Amino acid sequence: MTIEPIVIEPCEPGRLTPDDLRTLFLFEKLTDEQLGWLAEHGCTMRVGSGGLVVREGDPAESFFVLLSGAVSLTTRVGDDEVTTNRTDQRGVYMGATQAYLRDDGMPRKYMASMRALSDTEFFVLAAEDFGGLMRDWFPMAIHLLEGLALGIRNNQAVVGERQRLSALGALSAGLMHELNNPAAAASRATSALRQRVAAMRMKLGKLAAGKVAPDRLVALLELQEEVIERAAKAPVMTAMQVSDLEDELGGWMEERSITAGWDIAPVFAQGGIDTDCLNEMETRLASPELLDQAIHWVGYALETEQLMSDIEDATGRVSNLVHAAKQYSHVDRSAHQWIDVHTGLDSTLVMLGHKIGEGVRVVKDYDRTLPEIPAHPAELNQVWTNIVDNAVQAMHAAGTLTIRTYREDERLVVSVGDTGPGIPPEVRKRIFEPFFTTKPVGEGTGLGLDISYRIVVNTHGGDIDVSSEPGDTRFLIRLPFSEPPSA
Questions:
Q1: Keyword Endoplasmic reticulum on this protein (predicted)?
Q2: Pick the CATH number of 332-480 from 3.30.70.120, 2.40.40.10, 3.30.565.10, 3.30.1490.270
Q3: Please, which residues have CB within 8 angstroms of residue 364's CB and are 6 or more apart in sequence?
Q4: What pLDDT, on a 0 to 100 scale, did the predictor assign at position 402?
Q5: Do residues 18 and 36 make contact, with C-beta atoms less than 8 angstroms apart?
Q6: Contact at 8 Å (CB) between 253 and 268?
Q7: What are the strands, taking DSSP E only, across 27-112?
Q8: Which has fewest Cβ within 10 Å: 69, 252, 334, 346?
Q9: What pTM, to 2 d.p., does this model score?
Q10: Per-residue model confidence as pLDDT tens digits over 424-439
Q11: How far apart are CA 46 and CA 10, in angstroms?
Q12: 409 close to 417: Cβ distance less than 8 angstroms
């Protein structure tokens, strides 16, 4: 990548007199002695039209005051230069504006690039001179400014850390809640399974004690396997269909005086076994006494299969949750890697499942043909978490959450939309400001979207913006397909 050189004329010392400096609003209240000091230590600098005066990220070595001409300030967002200000107002200042802060080991850099839009002239002070005069001439003001700057920095660091811990705690609590449900289900199913297996052993003993003919016992075992196989292939029924079938089976068993038929009928109904199957059992066994015992034995086998399916489903859910948590946190994986963005989106939805709830319909419109992108996956998951959580809260846990991915030129776009009331224009223009929040005190720090913005823009060279109207709010996160070029 070619770096544009800074080409400016040499600085000319002593060109401005104290009277000239007094015409600048920044210096108009200074004493004659102070103006004389500025005239002695400052110089004037000329830059031709289109010339680059300072470059964003370079060491902040000079303090500039515009004397004539026009300039623009730009900042880099990904691969683009975004103009943040244009001015031709005489006396405006820029450059090393924080040189007066005490040395805390942090390098002072230009926060934006400045370019001359016409032939331009500046009054220039070295950053060291500007910082020294500020500390010597205005000590009380400097103490206040330093306290304000350091206070904001420390506050942002503490609150940001607190927010991350709070988010981690909320996610951990949600994950424990999600894990508890399948774990409890597996525990209940295991306890019931132990009882059913014991009952099956007892029933088998009774069948053997009843001196059932070997051929009949073999037929009974074959019948049991056939019924279990039929139950495995039975179509899925609605709750109403299961209830109707349960009544029909209960009536059939009552007509034949099956012991505790009301207890065994729900098991057969849940397995999708109908009266046609029971009629076939009755015909093949040709013994009312054996039919009673056979139905209970087959019922125990059916319930055992159902309980084992419940355990398999519960443990599978636990495994899926653990896998999602691992994908979300990216443990044991490098910080920066090529990733499929959909993996992080899916794991985030799983981790936030307890917050999304049943009242929110989740629509995923993914373009699975999109290539992998270079990213810090754990940081992007923090972005998805902040935005999805905000969307769910905006909808008051009732509405539609739509997550869409698609290509836009050389960028991958993730769109997170909700059907909430929308974001008013006066709020929308401040939504990415640090500490700005519309949530009640104690419910938001105002850093979630600021952190998301910095992760997307500063860390990944992407862009993030929002469009909103009642019933349709969309956050658009654009991420480059390739590594950003190094300077």
A1: no
A2: 3.30.565.10
A3: 345, 346, 403, 404
A4: 95
A5: yes
A6: no
A7: 43-47, 52-54, 62-68, 71-77, 80-87, 93-95
A8: 334
A9: 0.45
A10: 888 887 787 765 565 5
A11: 8
A12: no
